[in-house]
From TrEMBL:
Subunit and partners: Homodimer.
InterPro entries named among the record's database cross-references: Aminotransferase_I/II_large (IPR004839), Asp_trans (IPR000796), PyrdxlP-dep_Trfase (IPR015424), PyrdxlP-dep_Trfase_major (IPR015421), PyrdxlP-dep_Trfase_small (IPR015422)
Similarity-based family: Belongs to the class-I pyridoxal-phosphate-dependent aminotransferase family.
Protein name, per record: Aromatic amino acid aminotransferase apoenzyme
GO cellular component, as recorded: cytosol
EC number assigned by the record: 2.6.1.57
Keyword field contains Endoplasmic reticulum: no
Gene3D superfamilies: Aspartate Aminotransferase, domain 1, Type I PLP-dependent aspartate aminotransferase-like (Major domain)
The organism of origin for this protein: Sulfitobacter pontiacus
Keywords: Aminotransferase, Pyridoxal phosphate, Transferase
Amino acid sequence: MFETLQAQPADKILALMQMYKDDPRETKIDLGVGVYKDATGLTPVMRAVKAAEHQLWEAQTSKAYTGLAGDPAFGDAMVQMVLGDAVPRAQVAAAATPGGTGAIRQAFELIQMARPQARVFVSNPTWPNHLSILKYLGMEMVPYRYFDDETRGVDFDGMIADLKTAQKGDVVLLHGCCHNPTGANLNAAEWDAVIKVLQDTGATPMIDIAYQGFGDGLDADAAATRKVAAAVPECLIAASCSKNFGIYRERTGILMALSADTSAQKLNQGTLAFLNRQNFSFPPDHGARIVTTILNDDALRSDWMAELEDIRNTMLGLRSQLAGELQRLSGSDRFGFLAEHRGMFSRLGTSSDMVDKLREDHGIYMVGDSRMNIAGLNAETVPILAKAIIEVGI
Ligand code: PMP
């Protein structure tokens, strides 16, 4: 029966990783895959994660199933971390999922269950997996303008104009912070304007927050999500713990569904548990338990936050070093956007030919749309990248 299957397109980033591996040049630089790497190229297990695992290993007496929505303590800790006191806890349904991707998938299914005809507005560009899952589920997508090729910032007027065409029953997918793949983000006033459009149109926001703590700080990065959540009657939030806790392979994420009252919350909570049951039954627990242990222990939490701040500041340092180096070499400010962008990624905003040239001539690997993982750099490789960017004529 399986002869009817059609080959699926290879994941471009994974193919790029292989090319990088096969490249014998010692000077090669990997700015491809989206994991944080320290100056030595390692993706470390964070100190607090190790300590929490140790505690769990000693204290855990059973690995029997948790609830269908995961451990309630994980839900509480994550709702607090993402939403703070922006909305009453009793109006938030939450279910643990396998990673942020799992949360996004469950969110789309929830939307489809509630409104089979819903259109999902997606930024152009967005994380390719958003598009791929929506396509796989047969859901209608409407791209909205987002990245300005000229300024490498947000095409705010275009975005607002496009979002105004959304209607009640549509969903607007927004990146809570650290937009992937561009690195370009809305400022506070621009978020206010987006909220106004959501209120005027009645469209439902869905926020993907996968990099809380990687941009301007743990609370600062959640500020927009909190504002949106407090301003609209219903909202979906898909949060990932992969990056900020460095537990990528543990598959730890959560889907939150906010509603205007507690009876809707009960319905949502039951539906989230049902959806988990249909897709994978009980969500993974190990990563969720690590996160809960850290967030609920003062010492572990402050150590985790300190390490997260180091990671964030390392990336900010690399950004300003790169922007500075490019300013020196080009004699212009045209690369200043690199210091303005936030999170792990920046879209350089150049052609795929230039991306190929950087790879072929200089052993610098970035995604074809010119997305660079800033964490793939270190103080020594920044000048090499800057020189290569100028040499190929970007
Ligand atoms: N959303 C965005 C925008 C992402 O970049 C990622 C990770 N690449 C995710 C969600 C989900 O990550 P994970 O499933 O690994 O938690």
